[in-house]
Amino acid sequence: MDWLNLILMLTLAAGNTELLVSFVNRTHGLKINCGWLRHIRHIHDLALLLFPVLFFVFVGLRGPGLIWGGSWSDLSIWWKIYVALCACGVAGLVNSMIRWWCHRNPKCVTSTSSTVVDIVEQLQSRPLMDGPFFWMTRFPLNEIFQVEYSEKDVVLPRLPREWDGLTVLHLSDFHFIGTVTKPFFERALTIAMEKSADLVVFTGDLLDDPKLIEWFPDTLGQLDATLGRFYVLGNHDWEIDPPRTRNALDELGWTDVGGKTTSLQHANSELVIGGSECPWMGNPPDFSADNVDTFRILLSHTPDNFNWAIQQGVDLILSGHNHGGQVVLPVVGPVYAPSIHGVRYAGGAFWQSSTFLHVNRGLSGRYPLRWRCFPEISRLVLRSSKTT
Fold first, then answer.
1. Mind listing the pLDDT tens digit for each residue in 171-184?
2. Which of 39, 61, 72, 376 is 20 to 30 A (C-alpha) from 206?
3. Element housing 299 (H / E)
């Protein structure tokens, strides 16, 4: 047996996986409905297994017989093209892994702290019912009830001196589907509000079951903030009667900023909050009418709007959608994230030009599975660089 050829073939199989995963990630960042995305995932699942098996059988064991010491030069033109593509996949995988290993909070994040709370221990029971994908909750080491409460101090250059210490409670991706029951969300949010917040924001994906709109009053309806509560909807909300969802939130006192901006006066300075639900709904907000010196916050369900926000002079963009990947593999990092950037912005803090991006991992998901990727509720404490 030629062990070197076997290792090379296994490496190329990893490249095959990377190509297929990258394709799925990027298509899920586009405006494609769930029905078509489900077909894409089925093709992905089949190709993930089929192509490596065919490669090992018809190239490793038969044909050139690489496993038995055959020559790579004897591959047919089609297998050579496949090998070249897989080699590109290997390069992409290595690049993704290095970026994951090297990622650190940007310098504007001056301090971080977090606490992980076991909601099952808090409730003295597992808040579950036999809903969709219940079988996933039985996976070993599943962390769907281990909620991380994170806090970050972030220095932003254009934040007015008078606003130093402004707090933003960032929530995202609740995915009410019924498998994880309402007491989980009620308890998680009760703990979140033990510290006051100036702003509460929600960055999309509330519903996967339209009947569970009845949960809104006992969850999001219980939150409060000095300067208000603001939201955008996400791609899952897009599929489930968005006007009805907006009406229910508006009746609870939340402010819809999807596709528009709203201005707040605080401590003799102005704050503008805009929202983007692109590419699924509406148009991006128009910041052009605002003074260029006005501090700008963008709520965007997906971090894919990061570059657009930079061009608009946004100071702070708050996003969700990618769930941190939900499953983070040792060494490799997150694998799946529904983004045109793949797993680059799966979760965490990022800085580019003069814009700070925070990607919340979300409190739940359509699929009740978390491994090495806790559900998250985050609190940002904004600091002014003008205080000295």
1. 999 999 999 999 99
2. 39
3. strand 295-300
